[in-house]
C-alpha cells in the first residue's frame, strides 16, 4: 500500500484573495484602515504602510458554507478590544498544561467502545491515534516563550454509581435526542465530576460526552501556576443543539477542551474532507472556482473527491491525524490568550463551520494575531 496521503494538485495558479462566493455571501475584505486598527497598540497607531496587503498573506477563502460565508458580518477584533480582554502571562501564571485523554477504569470499560466509529466502512486497519507528548511538543514550539507541560494530575473515567450522593451538574441542558441522559464519572486526585452522555445523532459514534461538563472539570483542576489548560479527549462531544463539537474554550477561565474523534482519517470521506486541496493547496484557483460552481461539472467534482482519498499507510494517516489535532489545539489555546476568531487573513484562528473547512485553515497565526501573542510574552 502506498504511503502517500494524496496525489499532488496538477494546477499551478494560486488565489490569494477571497473567492467570488464571498461577494454573494456579503463578505467584505477588511479595509486598510481596519487592518491598521487591528494592528495598532495602546502606545501608538500602526502605519498604513506597515499593513500587509493582498498578495502578501492569503485572505480567507470564504467558500460556500464556510464560517464567514454563513456569518459574513462577523466583526473583527481590533487591538484595543483584545488588550482589554487578554490576561498577561505572569510569573505566577505562565504555564500551558496539556491533559492527556483520561484513562478508563475497568468498571467503565464500555466507554472504550464509544471511541470507535460505528460503521464498518469507517474502520480500516487501525490508525494509531495522536500521542499527547507529540501534541505537547508541537504546542511548545507554536507558543514559543511560554512553558508547555503535561498535566501532572491523573484523570480517569469510571462507572457512575447511581446510589452516589455526589451532586449532579448544575446545568440542566441535555441533548435534544436524549431526553434522559446517562452519566459517567471523570475522576481526578481531587474530586469527581459527573459527565452527561447521549447517543450520537449522526450515528457516527455510539455515545457522546457533554462538553460543558468536561469544561467544568477542567476549571476545577486548573493548577495554580497555569496560564491555560487544554484537556484532550478521544470521545465525540456535544453542546447545546449542535450534533457534535470538536472543541471549546472558556477564555475567561483559561481552559479548553478538544475532541480528537472527528479528525480520525477514516471519517474524511464521510465529512467531505479534501486531502488534495487541504492547506495550502486549497488556494488553488481551479479548486476554488470548482467549489464556487465555475468551470467544473458535477462529474468532475466527484472525480476530484474520489482522487483525494487514495490509499495511505497507517503511519501516514496517523501523521495526518496528528497535524489536524495540533492545529485545532493551537486554535483553542489561542482563545485562552484572548484572541477571537480572525476575519482578516487566512489564519489558524479563523472560525470553522465544518471539518472540511477546518483542514483548509493554515497552521499559523496571521500578521494580526501573532503580534498579540508576542505582546503577552514580552510583557512578562
From TrEMBL:
Cofactor(s) the protein requires to work: Zn(2+)
GO biological process entries: proteolysis
GO MF annotations in UniProt: metal ion binding; metallopeptidase activity
Key words of the record: Hydrolase, Metal-binding, Metalloprotease, Protease, Zinc
InterPro entries: MetalloPept_cat_dom_sf, Pept_M54_archaemetzincn
Gene3D superfamilies the record matches: Collagenase (Catalytic Domain) (3.40.390.10)
Any Pfam family hit: Peptidase_M54
Key word Nucleotide-binding present: no
Protein name per Swiss-Prot or TrEMBL: Unplaced genomic scaffold SPHSTscaffold_313, whole genome shotgun sequence
The organism's place on the tree of life at top rank: Eukaryota
Species, as recorded: Sphaerobolus stellatus (strain SS14)
